[in-house]
Amino acid sequence: MNEISNSDPVLNSILQSENEIADVLVQICARTRAETEKKSSIKSLKEIAEEAKNKKTPTRGFSRVLKEKMAKGQMGLIAECKKASPSAGVIRQDYDPSMIAVQYENAGASCLSVLTETGYFYGNNEDLKIAREACSLPVLRKDFILEPWQVYESRVIDADCILLIMAALKDNEASEMVELARCLDLDILVEVHDEAELNRALALDVCLIGINNRNLRTLKTDIAVTEALSPLVPPDRIIVSESGLKTFDDISRVQAVGASAVLVGESLLSKQNAGTAVRNLLGSN
Predict the structure, then answer these.
(1) Residues 207, 70: contact at Cβ < 8 Å?
(2) CA-CA distance, 47 to 101, in Å (whole number)?
(3) What is 147-201 written as a DSSP string?
(4) Measured between alpha carbons, how far is 17 from 102 in angstroms, rounded to an integer?
(5) Which Pfam families does this entry report, sorted A to Z (predicted)?
(6) Are strands 187-192 and 161-165 parallel, antiparallel or unpaired?
(7) 209: three-class secondary structure by DSSP
(8) E strand or H helix at 139
(9) Domains, the chain, ranges and CATH?
(10) Which helix (H) or strand (E) holds 85?
């Protein structure tokens, strides 16, 4: 597998000045659709649907774990496994999903998030399987889920939860994906970036609302996004603040406005020991 470097033309095109930045989300979604079309030409929708429906491995209750944390007044941590990102390049040269998952679990993480997107994050489905087998935590498949085929695939690879990004989906597409995921006993984290997307997400029958502090079109992060949107989320939903969270003070800041969970990756993975980084983030050292 090739690694992202400063000489990578794709990365360089992404990391240009703001006025020149291409719409990263559009690029990733185009690549994802092409990759999914290729996969579905090898294994049809009917075939992967049958495989998913016959899956015997029970899901681990991603939403349930976060609800239990919330009931105890504790902050839930969804700790992320990823090798790279468009904004940071390669985060860990020695990327080992198994070791990282164990460190996360031992340090008190509530759930895992594993990147399976291949082109920009250099993940793959095997990373999710390896991480899940190494621990007992429920796992979010972090990817750009755009087609029903991918929802079935998520169940086949033993994901417990899928991510739906409202910026990448029409309302009818999101609704179809939610219904399908429920039929497969998959939980759903619906991600929003602004008030319009939040209103669309609240129309869906989901309890997990992810507020992403990173603008996927410019890659900039601002925790103020969570502070602005959290008061608009009804109390029967669980708010997950995502991106740009680096310290215990950051966690306290989003918790103060109603976030019950956080999704953190880069600031944990950039440290030598991911477990120690989790303890520092949660203030449990």
Answers:
(1) no
(2) 31
(3) SHHHHHHHHHTT-SEEEEEGGG--HHHHHHHHHHHHHTT-EEEEEESSHHHHHHH
(4) 38
(5) IGPS (PF00218)
(6) parallel
(7) strand
(8) strand 139-142
(9) 43-280 (3.20.20.70)
(10) strand 84-85
